[in-house]
Write a structure and sequence with these properties.
Layout (H helix, E strand, L loop, with lengths): L1 H24 L4 E4 H10 L1 H8 L3 E16 L2 E9 L12 E11 L9 E16 L15 E15 L4
Parallel strand pairs: 1-2, 4-6
Antiparallel strand pairs: 2-3, 2-5, 3-4, 5-6
Amino acid sequence: MKSYKNYLILILILFMLLSTSNCKKTPLSLNLNALELIKKYESNPIKTNKLYLDKVVDIEGVINSITLKEDDDKYYVSEILFQENDDNSDPKKMAIRCFLKEPTLDDETYRRGKNVIIKGRVTGVGELTVSPSYDKEDPSISSDGYSVKTIDIKDCEIQIKNNN
């Protein structure tokens, strides 16, 4: 009877050890709204960085822009930018820049205005330089070059929200 109890306790301990090792591989993530995170960083970047640096986060927001990379005549989404999107917002305001873990084939899924959830690791504040642009058909949408402070998120995975 004693050996049966010892055997049962040993199995229970092994099960607990195996289950806790799996928990360490998939860290819990914090659920955040993109605009709320931007406002926190704008108001107190040092305190906010202490809260979120190197943490895995789920950020829900609306895509402002994407960066495409070309490879073998195909285009892949490699970065997604969240930024305040109303017509009165300053394009030079802080933004969230998500670097995708694996570039995703561009199939028109990830476009400005799409509501998505990005899961990734906060790596701190960076800077994005936007090149000057000129649209000869509509000069009103041309712009001078400028820099934008960014909250950088690495190893991002994307989930499309269905309520769009």
